[in-house]
Amino acid sequence: MASPINKKTLEHLAQLARIELDPREEERLLHDLQKILDYFGELQALDTAGVVPLTGGTLLRNVFRDDDERRNTNRGAGTDAFPESRGRLLKVPPVFE
Amino acid sequence: MNAPAPMTSLHELTIKTFHEGLLAKKFSALEITQAFFRRIREQDRTIGAYLALHEEQAAMDAERVDVALAKDEPLGMLAGAPLAIKDLLLMKGERTTAGSKILEHYTASYDAGVIARLKAEQAIFLGKTNLDEFAMGSSTENSAFQITRNPHDPERVPGGSSGGSAAAVAAHLALGALGTDTGGSIREPAAFCGVVGLKPTYGAVSRSGLIALASSLDQIGPFAATVEDAAILFRAIAGKDPLDATSADPPDGGYGDELVHPDFERVRKLVVGVPEEYFGAGVEEDVLRSVEQARKTIESLKISFKKVSLPHTKYAVAAYYIILPAEVSANLARFDGIRYSRIPDLGPHVKNLRDIYVRSRGKGFGAEAKRRIILGTFVLSSGYYDAYYAKAQQVRALIRNDFVEAFKEVDVIFAPVTPTPAFKIGEKTADPLAMYLSDIFTIPANLAGVPAVAIPAPTPEGALPVGFQLIGKPFREADILGIGQYYERIVRGS
Fold it and tell me: From the candidates B28, B138, B143, B185, which is the catalytic residue?
């Protein structure tokens, strides 16, 4: 059976994932991914008809909390860790051509 | 009671005996902290367990404990205890790299939930330990910064991904450590390095401030020299945290004193299951022999054993390496080269936002991270989602159900941690699939969300360490740690 991944699909996936690959990396990755996907094939032999998928690590159900003020939420931690800032302004690299 | 340990040797010290010695004023917290830093300077050049040392802060914190002791203030079990922290956990004001170039210059702006709890306990943090990049690996060879060597044989890997933490405890470069376990990343290195490692129940420990690998699988847990120490560390970090919505207290309230002080009469009535699927082809003879010896010792405590079956075990690795990369591709999307940390030189032809993204991620991520991000992107892509991702989630349900069924018959499951002892550095780096298969006995507990502890099994003089594993019911860490402590009393003669 032909592998579902070839050079063209790999390049497309790398674009989607926003990762630049050099030709050597691409070749190695293609080889590895084909081998790994081949291994995944053994799952197809298992009949899972009607099995309800386990979609997370816990069976806890989502609930809504009361819409009130919460303290200790690490507020501001995201901007505090920003690589470059001036006062309350965050500095980003130039992104327009 | 424990016999008093000779207090001059860090080799003999456990968290428990450190605490007793501290209260008896046999040494100060500062003296022990400084002794650890001396030993790290001597030994860690060859081992490579640490990525960063927090010497100044540690000395200040240790002095504070000594002052509290001088004033007769009450001190908890972890006060002054020098610990090592996997560099995947945020500590406010400290660099946190996840072993990756893409976070090389990132400084955390808040404490992880577990760090906040250990700070409240007045524990001492010696530094941050090495890991496979973003915890992706089983050997700590995927770190962007250095490899870590196994203290028992420098030609071999310490296991991974929490290899730095395991090696630090094994080489007496810390009294205990924290790691994370997504598919075995605490238990496998614990087994390879001959220390105790606990992966708690999914949700038992807050993941707030843990750089996420696969959110439905990740758990933070302790490494220690003894099961008792691991229990002490686990008790300190466990419990619901409002900053992690998946964290939870045990259904019957909270973790009680039984974690650290098990009732051995109760422990003896537990029934232990032996799953045939974990003892088949591919497990090395030496591993089988050591694990069987450990089993016999436990049996000699009048704990009864019973055969069980976990029939879907052989599908676990494939299901895991679909689910994990899928979550990885989403979790690692946030590393864009603009937030958190930047790559200093992106090279020519970077003209727009897209160029910054692709170049930063191309330069910032190592080979294994790229492999998993792209694999995850593939299994989630339209046309393949059902065949791979949805299928893997169904298989995950079947694997979880295997445990549910087995736990109707038994209280605890007994198994090897890994099919082989520590392998050679470089042995599996060229073959990712071979590396993935070394997790075959640890992955199922993550997929099912159940707790499991790795404990050193007896080995012949000079042989590499081997670990056995006790897997428990959800939120019943007390059962596996109870049997572990009972076992430890016999083999350590304490």
Answer: B185
| Domains of chain B as residue ranges with CATH | 15-310+405-492 (3.90.1300.10)
Q: With left for phi above 0 and alpha for psi between -120 and 50, is residue B203 left, alpha or beta?
A: left
Pair of tokens at residue A5 = 């991944």
Report the distance separating Cα B469 and Cα B416, nearest Å: 6
Chain A partners within 8 Å of B381 (Cβ): 13, 16
Cβ atoms B82, B116 nearer than 8 A: no
Are B130 and B162 in contact by the 8 Å Cβ rule? The answer is no
Can you list the domains of chain A with their CATH numbers? 1-44 (1.10.20)
Alpha carbon separation from B222 to A37, B81, B178, B210, B217 (Å, rounded): 34, 13, 5, 14, 16
A72 touches B: beta carbon within 8 Å: yes
Which residues in A lie closer than 8 A to residue B203 (C-beta atoms)? 57-58, 60
- The structure's pTM equals 0.96
Q: Is B185 a catalytic residue?
A: yes
List chain B pLDDT tens, one digit each, 494 residues.
Answer: 343 344 458 888 999 999 999 999 999 999 999 999 999 999 999 999 999 999 999 999 999 999 999 999 999 999 999 999 999 999 999 999 999 999 999 999 999 999 999 999 999 999 999 999 999 999 999 999 999 999 999 999 999 999 999 999 999 999 999 999 999 999 999 999 999 999 999 999 999 999 999 999 999 999 999 999 999 999 999 999 999 999 999 998 889 899 999 999 999 999 999 999 999 878 999 999 999 999 999 999 999 999 999 999 999 999 999 999 999 999 999 999 999 999 989 988 899 999 999 999 999 999 999 999 999 999 999 899 999 999 999 999 999 999 999 999 999 999 999 999 999 999 999 898 888 988 999 999 999 999 999 999 999 999 999 999 999 999 999 999 999 999 999 998 75
**Closest partner residue to A18 among B106, B243, B358, by Cβ?**
B358
